[in-house]
């Protein structure tokens, strides 16, 4: 359990940076060299190496040296674990959205006239009201 | 787009701490006072207030003072946004798992005897092999 917590800590912390998320998006299309990963970002090679180190420590990528080229590859398990953790809250937010939808769909009449006695449910279409003259 | 990035940064960074995730788990059951949130964690009131500040800044909770009691409540949008971002990778990890499953299910014969010529597909059930005597 501690290890699970620890890896979730590292995963979420690593994902909390736009450059690192962008690197992961690039690697989703397939493995890439460090030079290829530097190109789209306007940052130095040492800076990108630091980001790659954080991603590797979190287990989100693996690096392999092939000759003189360092290749990076996305690994799936930590991201799946993070998604699993967030999915525990899906029921909660779906309930909240349902409540919001119900609130927005309730007849406006009740909101405008809170002292009005409850009446049998009416369709929500707007009908012109008769004014007392 | 910049705002979306910014809020994802704050959301993932806030989720990268076990105490803050534990607070969110508690709040999933309903709103709670700060005193109720301190109880299960062996940390000081100032420390919990700091965590609540980070969660509030990320928009993951809202705080409201009712009389002398500060109540906290979970808000769903940022967590849903984080889940949406991770779900973009679902196709990738499902493909990887499919490949792994295919690899594990391929007939062991091919792995044991790589020089063997390809033969017509055979059922995977094990049949006793005749030994040359």
Give structural notes.
2 copies of one chain form a homodimer. Chain A is mainly α and about 130 residues long. Helices cover about 55% and strands about 10% of the residues of chain A. Chain A contains 7 helices and 3 strands, in the order H-H-E-H-H-E-E-H-H-H. The first copy, chain A, has helices at about 1-15, 20-30, 35-40, 45-55, 75-85, 90-105, 110; strands spanning about 30-35, 60-65, 70-75. Chain A has a 3-stranded antiparallel β-sheet with strand order 1-3-2. In chain A, helix 1 runs antiparallel to helix 4 and helix 1 (about 1-15) crosses helix 5. The longest helix of chain A is centred in the C-terminal third of the chain and has 16 residues, at about 90-105. The interface of A and B includes residues 17, 28, 83 and 92 of A.
Quick synopsis:
The structure is a homodimer of 133-residue chains. Chain A has helices at residues 2-15, 18-28, 34-38, 45-57, 77-87, 90-105, 108-112; strands spanning 32-33, 61-66, 69-74.
């Amino acid at each position: 359990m501690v290890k699970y917590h620890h890896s979730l800590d590292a995963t979420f912390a690593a994902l909390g940076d736009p450059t690192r998320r962008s690197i992961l998006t690039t690697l989703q299309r397939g493995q890439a060299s460090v030079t290829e990963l530097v190109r789209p970002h306007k940052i130095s090679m040492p800076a990108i190496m630091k980001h790659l180190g954080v991603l590797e420590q979190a287990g989100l990528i693996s690096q392999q040296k092939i000759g003189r080229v360092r290749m990076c590859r996305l690994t799936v398990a930590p991201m799946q674990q993070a998604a699993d953790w967030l999915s525990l809250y899906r029921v909660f937010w779906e309930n909240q959205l349902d409540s919001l939808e119900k609130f927005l769909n309730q007849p406006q009449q009740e909101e405008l006239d809170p002292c009005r006695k409850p009446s049998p449910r009416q369709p929500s279409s707007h009908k012109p009201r008769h004014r007392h003259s």
